[in-house]
Amino acid sequence: MDANSLVSIVTPFKNTSKFLSDTLQSIVNQTYPNWELLIVDDNSTDNGYAIVSEWAKKDSRIRLFKSTGSGIISALQLAYSQSKGEFITRMDSDDIMSPDKLKIMVNDLKTYGKGNVSIGLVKYFSEGQLGDGFKSYEKWLNQLSSTGTNFREIYKECVIPSPCWMVHRSDFESCGAFESFTYPEDYDLTFRMFEAELKCIPTDSILHHWRDYPLRASRTDSNYADNTFMDLKLHYFLKLHRIEIKPLVVWGAGAKGKNIAKKLLELNVPFHWVCDNPKKIGKEIYGQPMLGFHVIDDLENAQNIITVANQNAQSEIRNFFDQRKKESLIDYFFFC
């Protein structure tokens, strides 16, 4: 491997002209110089293409394209098809790289070798008020990343930040690269990395500054709605972890629990449904009887999908399984 291996940065953009120059400046400022930026205009209606074009004229490492399709996935596919790097990473067009981001990630991958994903700690920022949800997600994600245990919580949320990972090209190909048309595309890729048994490299460096603003795609695009995330989680659970000879139990009868239950019924996957709401226990939802938690001890070696969002309740549920010596990603799976 060359001591100064080429890094390919793939970046789609759509109507982010307000932020593009800051993003591009953070890439140009990288202390690791051997990179190429494959940046693709996903049918913007603002002047973003003209902005990037000016940057590309000044720096030959920036290669600008127009997407011939529609959506982030098509743009990512085009960018990747033009890439040549030994290492692959993604960047969002409205965020900021820390100056040493590429250098640290390349060094991580050279130290740990193939079969690993280099990640970084993230920091959210906003011109307005940053919501508690973002702060909570940042703290949770960074705790996982600091120990490299991201995949342990893969069914809760996307455990690898979409614009803050780097892999060897061969490992990326083994995961299917950007070939999948499944949204949310970053979460789907994370599951495919997990399926390929890649390992996350622990990190203690903030490498990515994640911008939040009202029109960010993750807030406005229907491809990132809660039900889409739940469908993806269930798909990979059934593919990677479901053992059909074991009873399946869904915990919780809120919106997320109902979403999972409805999907299981559509797929003809039998399950038991439990909750702690006395007004619901004994009644039927979607023709499925609601049971109390006490039935769990009568179901031998059950697999449990937890859709209960309350943090205190989650702690109680973890204690419930710990007392019975049950294991995460084998016996129980937190879906929120």
Give descriptors for this structure:
11 helices; 37% helix; alpha/beta; 336 residues; single chain; 6-stranded mixed beta sheet; 7-stranded mixed beta sheet
Give structural notes.
With 336 residues, the chain is an alpha/beta fold. Helices cover 37% and strands 20% of the residues. It contains 11 helices and 16 strands. The strands form 3 sheets. It has a 7-stranded mixed β-sheet with strand order 3-2-1-4-8-6-9, with helices on both faces. The longest helix has 16 residues, at 132-147. The radius of gyration is 22 Å and the shape is elongated. It starts with 6 loop residues before the first strand and ends with a strand.
Main sheet: strand order: 3-2-1-4-8-6-9
The beta-strand count equals: 16
Shape: elongated
| Major sheet attributes | 7 strands, mixed
Q: SS-based structural class?
A: alpha/beta
